[in-house]
């Protein structure tokens, strides 16, 4: 069994479990309705869930690293996450 004592790590993992539960439920709904138009609408809602979870988990990680990473390192991490979103939006 996993023993997690760090509240930040536990919160990050719980957000990922929540995200995967939402994704699994959406997949089951797509199969249940068995229609392309409904599946497309469900997928559109999922497009908002993924980036939101990414931002929340990254923010928690940065809060946990706040005292351990230098200012230039923190700027590099934030810039990297920003570039991920820039790349996603350019597609």
In words, what does this structure look like?
The chain is mainly α and 91 residues long. It has three helices and no strands. The protein has one domain. The longest helix is centred in the middle third of the chain and has 30 residues. The protein starts with 6 loop residues before the first helix and ends with a helix.
> Could you tell me how far the N terminus lies from the C terminus, measured between alpha carbons in angstroms?
41 Å
Strand content: under 5%
- Helix tally equals 3
Structural class: mainly alpha
Q: What's the structural domain tally?
A: 1
Quaternary state of this entry equals: single chain
Low-confidence stretches: none
Mean pLDDT: 88
Profile the largest sheet. Answer: none
Instruction: Give the total of beta strands.
Output: 0
The rounded Rg comes to 17 Å
Taken from the alpha-carbon principal axes, the silhouette is: flat
Order of helices and strands: HHH
Q: Which bin fits the share of residues in helices?
A: over 70%
């Amino acid at each position: 069994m996993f023993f997690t004592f760090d509240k930040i790590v536990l919160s990050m993992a719980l957000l990922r479990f929540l995200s995967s539960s939402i994704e699994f439920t959406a997949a089951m709904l797509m199969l249940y309705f068995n229609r392309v138009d409904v599946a497309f609408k469900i997928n559109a809602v999922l497009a908002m869930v993924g980036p939101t979870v990414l931002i929340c988990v990254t923010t928690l990680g940065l809060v946990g690293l706040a005292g351990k990473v230098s200012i230039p390192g923190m700027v590099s991490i934030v810039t990297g996450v920003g570039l991920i979103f820039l790349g996603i939006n350019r597609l």
